[in-house]
């Protein structure tokens, strides 16, 4: 069979030299291999992609310019569940707004969470000897402050409630 196919390479019916596999295949480019190659037929797609990417970056840059500095001077620790957002997204927003995101609660000026803290954590915050008053606030404080263009009062967004004072 091999000798027969190899001796008839010029014939149109020979699958070795006259295959239509390329026309029947879907071309997939993998960016994980580290090897990228340009396809002539895809240049217009690449150009459109590049233009869209530039447009998106310009929009994001203007968003960041609006946010920068609103929360400067704050050290925020994300201390639990965040409703309607993710930790990663909130860290990106906080950093863009000028805040410093901490990996531990010590040194934090704000703890961000959507739910009540445990009793021991609340007790530690209320009775702690820290020189820094820690505000335990909801994520809405961040988004509303950015929307307002200034750092809003934490009172309205406080998570820790007290029967005698309303909030602490």
TrEMBL record:
<dbReference type="InterPro" id="IPR036420">
    <property type="entry name" value="BRCT_dom_sf"/>
</dbReference>
<protein>
    <recommendedName>
        <fullName>BRCT domain-containing protein</fullName>
    </recommendedName>
</protein>
<feature type="region of interest" description="Disordered">
    <location>
        <begin position="24"/>
        <end position="45"/>
    </location>
</feature>
<dbReference type="Pfam" id="PF00533">
    <property type="entry name" value="BRCT"/>
</dbReference>
<dbReference type="InterPro" id="IPR001357">
    <property type="entry name" value="BRCT_dom"/>
</dbReference>
<feature type="domain" description="BRCT">
    <location>
        <begin position="66"/>
        <end position="159"/>
    </location>
</feature>
């Amino acid at each position: 069979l091999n000798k027969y196919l190899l001796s008839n390479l010029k014939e149109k019916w020979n699958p070795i030299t006259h295959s239509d596999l390329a026309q029947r295949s879907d071309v997939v480019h993998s960016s994980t291999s580290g090897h990228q190659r340009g396809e002539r037929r895809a240049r217009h797609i690449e150009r459109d992609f590049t233009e869209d990417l530039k447009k998106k970056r310009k929009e994001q840059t203007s968003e960041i310019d609006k946010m920068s500095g609103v929360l400067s001077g704050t050290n925020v620790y994300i201390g639990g569940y965040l409703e309607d957002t993710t930790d990663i997204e909130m860290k990106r927003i906080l950093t863009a707004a000028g805040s410093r995101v901490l990996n531990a609660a010590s040194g934090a000026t704000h703890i961000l969470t959507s739910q009540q803290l445990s009793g021991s954590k609340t007790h530690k915050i209320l009775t702690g000897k820290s020189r820094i008053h820690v505000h335990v606030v909801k994520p809405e404080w961040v988004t509303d402050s950015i929307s307002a263009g200034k750092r809003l009062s934490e009172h309205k967004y406080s998570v820790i409630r007290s029967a005698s004072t309303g909030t602490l």
